[in-house]
Write a sequence for this structure.
């Protein structure tokens, strides 16, 4: 998440207030809210960058009203609630200038059955060939399902970076 925020902060001009620059997908409500809270603390005191969080169990009309009233530079969401907003709150066009997509805890996203939702979300984003974006996929484990998601969400030239030395065993 930090590299995406750093990239956003380095821009000379502020992104359009009506468009999402960074989209973060999280498998759980609690994690999404935590990511949003940490993102707010990272951008605090910086030029006007607004973080919004949309998760199930909250009022969709209130969230949609916030989209119209406030900036929406960084959007942290759970997949199903994001699809609700794409469908019902006309959120899809706000991804027109998306710079970064973050799939956090990809293994958990898939374990919880979100692959169809992620495919729907990817289908609502601008074509990467027309509007390039950075995609970051974080996962504690690398099962076949995550490799399949990598193929769908990342460019064919993606790089796998392990934080575990070759001499250590993965837990």
């Amino acid at each position: 998440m930090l590299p995406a925020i750093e990239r956003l902060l380095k821009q000379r001009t502020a992104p359009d207030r009506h468009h999402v620059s960074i989209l973060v997908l999280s498998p759980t409500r609690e994690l999404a809210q935590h990511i949003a809270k940490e993102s707010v603390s990272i951008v605090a005191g910086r030029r006007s960058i607004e973080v919004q969080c949309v998760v199930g169990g909250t009022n969709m009309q209130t969230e949609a009203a916030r989209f119209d009233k406030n900036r929406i530079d960084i959007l942290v969401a759970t997949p199903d609630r994001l699809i609700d907003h794409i469908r019902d709150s006309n959120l899809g066009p706000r991804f027109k200038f998306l710079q970064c997509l973050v799939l956090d805890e990809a293994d958990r996203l898939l374990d919880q059955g979100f692959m169809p939702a992620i495919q729907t979300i990817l289908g609502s984003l601008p074509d990467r060939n027309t509007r390039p974006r950075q995609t970051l996929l974080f996962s504690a484990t690398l099962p076949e399902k995550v490799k399949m998601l990598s193929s769908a969400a990342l460019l064919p030239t993606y790089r796998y970076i392990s934080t575990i030395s070759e001499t250590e065993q993965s837990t």
